[in-house]
């Protein structure tokens, strides 16, 4: 009897253990099955019935040479029986000058006013408390290519149309291709503090594989006429199938070739010129001018100094977000090409980074010889996107602690999709290295962080490129290596020969000049129309020390004046970006032993506040959005209540080459024993069933 009882207790214990095991097995694996089912059914009626107030997105654009005027139209509709507050995070190029924000609802038009951000936020919240409608547009201060729209108290069964307008510069590729980019999605970004993927712009907006809203695109490209006739040879897109209408006399019209286009990749339009352009005045307004210089190789050769550049460091993103062949595959190909092309007697190293970083060689750099090249090629050929998160600060901090040897100049080639959350901290570090280091950045994938990739190059006098999927890597490698092997011309000055008119240059410090690359310079002035129509005006670009002329542009006749204000806004935006990205002045001793004894915070804060005030002043004077200002519009309402208002944050469609991040996040999420609920950084199914699956 005693033995039987003992056996029973043993069986009871085993059954108890088995019960516990089965419970957690079902919870974890059942959750994964439920997640997998939801992924498979992401297009089902269940998804379509979810509360997504954004219904349509339209893009309308006019391109004139190196400038584009863009209008984004977003249609929100409340299909619920309660008022909602709709939140939508979306990307716009950091250098864009957003100058208009308009809401249309029930035949009413609310033109938002630009105000200091805290004032605008306070007015927005107060209006909702008083049962009015309110509309707010903000720029994220950490990742400055992210923007947030707030549509407050949208009544049931009501539609609201939001219109945002901005102007932006266009890049020149290979000396003869003008590239226009519309970012459409915010890629999931790694947050080092959280140790995982962060949600965009401090909101709770979720990522999804496919959204119920789609995008329509209309682009008017004005013809460029030169001395030899029409200068545009070809218009194409490497991102979407397009249709081109050639019937208009003075412009080409580009639209998508298919309906219901998803927002899963950036829109890229390439305008190929018939010949390389030099020294062209693009547009004149009544109080602003925009000049473009494209110095020749001969111009730059004569202006170069004799500084030797012989240290090359490759910083390669091997985080999980780089899994796609459009990213890690192109990265392997690019680094292999670099290893075959470096000059003799140079030094090099390769650093891979993710959650941590590792250098190929223990020394900071090693000599470029056959043995070291062979070792590097072997490592690169097996390189995978398997290093976890995206911790870019750590390898850059290591390089800062180990500056280049005297007599060397360090060139960094950084290849990344840029999916980090705190861009500002990385850029601040890079600015502190700019005296001895240049970064040549490569943005990879369908939706790279353009603010990071461009900012890295801008902060260190380097250059950036974006490698679109299915592109030829060798072209970009050759271009960037060519730039790295020639010192940039940084001592550039501009002279405005505009008679008695006083012209103020923007930016005040011109960026570096490279051969066959465009440099845009703005001049702000009083009314130019007071000059005679046949006056000869010119703009000269030259080096400061020896006054070597890099180029000259002439205006022989002022035939018409454009009064839209686009050029003035771009000039003001250039000044604002210069202030935002300026290298911080030293605040005392750099010795670490003094840092604990002297509180430098007060001086730093004072400088930051002065810069912030200047940015706000420019923002309000020229009516363009900045991280410290916001557009706010108030719709006065009578006899309505917002007391039952619910929050609806529009889901963000993840880019086509980041789909794996959703599945990875779902699989690695786990049950939180403290709450008994399913916990994780992302929730892609938008229903309570997922979180209830782990309820004990």
From TrEMBL:
<dbReference type="Pfam" id="PF13768">
    <property type="entry name" value="VWA_3"/>
</dbReference>
<dbReference type="InterPro" id="IPR013694">
    <property type="entry name" value="VIT"/>
</dbReference>
<protein>
    <submittedName>
        <fullName>Uncharacterized protein</fullName>
    </submittedName>
</protein>
<keyword id="KW-0472">Membrane</keyword>
<feature type="domain" description="VIT">
    <location>
        <begin position="38"/>
        <end position="168"/>
    </location>
</feature>
<keyword id="KW-0812">Transmembrane</keyword>
<dbReference type="InterPro" id="IPR036465">
    <property type="entry name" value="vWFA_dom_sf"/>
</dbReference>
<keyword id="KW-1133">Transmembrane helix</keyword>
<feature type="transmembrane region" description="Helical">
    <location>
        <begin position="12"/>
        <end position="30"/>
    </location>
</feature>
<dbReference type="Pfam" id="PF08487">
    <property type="entry name" value="VIT"/>
</dbReference>
<dbReference type="InterPro" id="IPR002035">
    <property type="entry name" value="VWF_A"/>
</dbReference>
<feature type="domain" description="VWFA">
    <location>
        <begin position="311"/>
        <end position="485"/>
    </location>
</feature>
């Amino acid at each position: 009897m005693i033995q039987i009882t003992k056996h029973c207790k043993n069986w009871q214990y085993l059954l108890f253990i088995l019960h516990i095991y089965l419970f957690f097995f079902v919870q974890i694996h059942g959750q994964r099955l439920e997640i997998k089912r939801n992924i498979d059914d992401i297009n089902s009626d269940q998804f379509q019935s979810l509360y997504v107030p954004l219904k349509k997105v339209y893009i309308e654009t006019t391109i004139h040479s190196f400038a584009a005027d863009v209008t984004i139209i977003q249609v929100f509709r409340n299909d619920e029986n309660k008022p909602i507050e709709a939140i939508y995070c979306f990307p716009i190029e950091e250098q864009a000058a957003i100058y208009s924000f308009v809401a249309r609802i029930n035949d009413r038009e609310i033109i938002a006013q630009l105000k200091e951000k805290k004032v605008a936020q306070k007015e927005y919240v107060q209006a909702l408390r008083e049962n009015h409608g309110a509309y707010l547009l903000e720029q994220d201060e950490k990742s400055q290519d992210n923007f947030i729209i707030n549509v407050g108290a949208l009544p049931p069964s009501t539609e609201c149309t939001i219109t945002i307008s901005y102007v932006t510069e266009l890049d020149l590729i290979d000396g003869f291709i003008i590239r226009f980019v519309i970012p459409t999605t915010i890629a999931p970004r790694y947050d080092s503090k959280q140790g995982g993927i962060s949600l965009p712009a401090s909101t709770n907006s979720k990522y999804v594989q496919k959204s119920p809203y789609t995008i329509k695109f209309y682009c008017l490209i004005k013809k460029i006429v030169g001395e030899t006739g029409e200068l545009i040879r070809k218009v194409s897109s490497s991102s979407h199938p397009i249709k081109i209408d050639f019937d208009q006399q003075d412009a080409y019209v580009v639209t998508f070739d298919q309906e219901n286009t998803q927002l899963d990749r950036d829109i890229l339009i390439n305008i190929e010129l018939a010949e390389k352009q030099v020294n062209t005045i693009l547009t004149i307004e009544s109080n602003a001018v925009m000049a473009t210089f494209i110095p020749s190789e001969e111009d730059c050769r004569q202006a170069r100094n004799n500084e030797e550049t012989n240290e090359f460091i490759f910083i390669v993103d091997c985080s999980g977000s780089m899994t796609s062949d459009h990213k890690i595959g192109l990265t392997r190909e690019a680094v292999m090409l670099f290893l075959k092309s470096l000059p003799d007697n140079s030094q090099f190293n390769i650093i891979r980074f993710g959650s941590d970083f590792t250098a190929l060689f223990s020394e900071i750099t090693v000599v470029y010889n056959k043995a070291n090249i062979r070792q590097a090629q072997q490592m690169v050929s097996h390189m995978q996107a398997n290093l976890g998160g995206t911790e870019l600060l750590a390898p850059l901090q290591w390089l800062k602690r180990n500056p280049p040897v005297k007599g060397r100049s360090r060139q960094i080639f950084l290849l990344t999709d840029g999916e980090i959350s705190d861009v500002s901290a990385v850029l601040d570090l890079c600015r502190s290295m700019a005296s001895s280091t240049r970064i040549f950045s490569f943005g990879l994938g369908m939706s790279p962080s353009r603010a990071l990739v461009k900012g890295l190059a801008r902060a260190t006098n380097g250059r950036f490129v974006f490698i679109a999927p299915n592109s030829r890597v060798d072209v970009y490698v050759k271009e960037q290596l060519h730039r790295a092997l020639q010192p940039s011309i940084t001592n550039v000055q501009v002279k405005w020969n505009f008679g008695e008119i006083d012209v103020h240059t923007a930016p005040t410090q011109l960026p570096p000049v490279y051969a066959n690359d465009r440099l845009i310079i703005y001049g702000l002035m009083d009314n130019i129309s007071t000059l005679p129509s046949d006056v000869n005006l010119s703009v000269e670009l030259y080096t400061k020390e020896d006054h070597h002329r890099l180029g000259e542009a002439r205006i022989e006749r002022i035939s018409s004046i454009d009064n839209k204000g686009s050029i003035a806004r771009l000039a003001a935006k250039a000044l604002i970006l210069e202030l935002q990205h300026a290298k911080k002045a030293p605040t005392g001793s750099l010795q670490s032993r003094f840092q604990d004894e002297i509180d430098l915070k007060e001086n730093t804060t004072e400088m930051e506040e002065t810069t912030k005030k200047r940015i706000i002043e420019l923002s309000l004077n020229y009516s363009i959005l900045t991280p410290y200002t916001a557009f706010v519009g108030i719709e006065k309402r009578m006899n309505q209540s917002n007391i039952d208002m619910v929050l609806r944050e529009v889901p963000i469609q993840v880019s086509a080459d980041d789909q794996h991040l959703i599945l990875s996040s779902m699989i690695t999420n786990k049950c939180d024993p403290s709450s008994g609920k399913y916990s994780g950084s992302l929730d892609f199914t938008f229903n309570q069933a997922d979180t209830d699956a782990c309820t004990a």
